[in-house]
Amino acid sequence: MSCNSWKSVCMKVCVLGLGEVGLPTAKYMLGKKLDVWGYDIELAAVKRAKKNGVGKATCVWDEIPVVDVYVICVSTRLKSNNPDLSPIFEVCEKISGKIASSHPLVSIESTVIPGVSRHVYEDLFKRHVHLVHVPHRYWTEQPVEHGVNQLRVIGSVDSASLERGVVFYRDVLGISLHTVSTIEVAEMSKIAENACRYVQIAFGEELRMVCEDLKLDFDEVRNACNTKWNIKILEARDGIGGHCLPKDVQYLASLATSKTLINGAIMVDRKYREWLASRRRD
Predict the structure, then answer these.
(1) pLDDT of the residue at 194
(2) 3-state class of 70 per DSSP?
(3) Of 46, 97, 170, 240, which has the fewest CB atoms closer than 10 Å, so is most exposed?
């Protein structure tokens, strides 16, 4: 089926993983009048999805029909500070059992390290799919401005997959795309941007500790610095929390032979948390 005829049909889409990213992704696709199915291993996530309008959500994989597009939004993890990508492999194994002759589009939106997408394409899917990596940039604090529909990076395993992925994201979903030359570049871009954010926050944390040791107002110093056109010192709050930043900085560290800056930022955040705790005790 050509891309033009593929775009014209009523697409069936399955979103795998109905958590912080997958649920708003499924809801967004429903808003585009697609036939959306949702899958999650957690019954609570399925019930929440149903309450939010994703009526075809299930935790029974056999209930999912063969679809045109599989969008993978499962959470990846850490195991002993190393990447744990088993959730990706598990859902790709499930998808591989439903592959029809039509070569469906598989999009991995979950965070992975370089090489994972090509591995599942070649070893799990045996090249019988179109595969793209379109890492999510969803931010729960600003789900409209920084939600599903924002500029995204797309990389692919081959030109046919890229063409299919661009049609789906840009033409069907209306999402702006920045295309990169290989899928590995897209994989690296996600962990690099989150690790960069981690390091920037850690600098703000260390600067706050220095300022307060010197009896200086950190916010005033920060605001003064940020008047310069190429400076943007971030806030120092309660430590670097959430799921993505602490995980992704470790993903990047796992790939680096020299990681002095990364390890230093991790140490700063740890010391900053201890510093905050001691101030609260006082």
Answers:
(1) 95
(2) strand
(3) 97
* 69: enclosing H helix or E strand: strand 69-72
Domain definitions of the chain by residue range? 3-181, 188-277
pLDDT score of 195:
96
Is the Cβ–Cβ distance between 138 and 190 less than 8 Å?
no
- Retrieve residue 239's tokens: 């430590």
Cβ atoms of 52 and 46 within 8 Å: the answer is no
Q: At what angle do helices 244-255 and 260-281 cross, to 10 degrees?
A: 150
- CA dist., res. 226 & res. 220, Å (int): 10
Q: What average pLDDT does this structure show over 4-9?
A: 58
From the list 26, 15, 34, the residue with the least C-alpha distance to 51 is: 26
Cα(270)–Cα(19) distance, integer angstroms: 28
Distance CA 224, CA 64 (A): 56
Q: Helix, strand, or coil here: 82?
A: strand
* Dihedral sign for Cα atoms in the order 175, 190, 39, 8: positive
Of residues 163 and 5, the one with the higher pLDDT is 163
CATH code 1.10.1040.10 for 188-277: yes
Question: Residue 111 and residue 235: Cα distance in Å, rounded?
Answer: 25
Q: How many CA atoms lie within 13 A of 110 on its CB side?
A: 29
- Residue 169 in tokens: 């994201």
CB within 8 Å of 217: residues ≥ 6 apart: 211
Question: What dotted CATH number matches 3-181?
Answer: 3.40.50.720
Length, in residues, of the chain: 282
How high does pLDDT run on average in the chain? 94
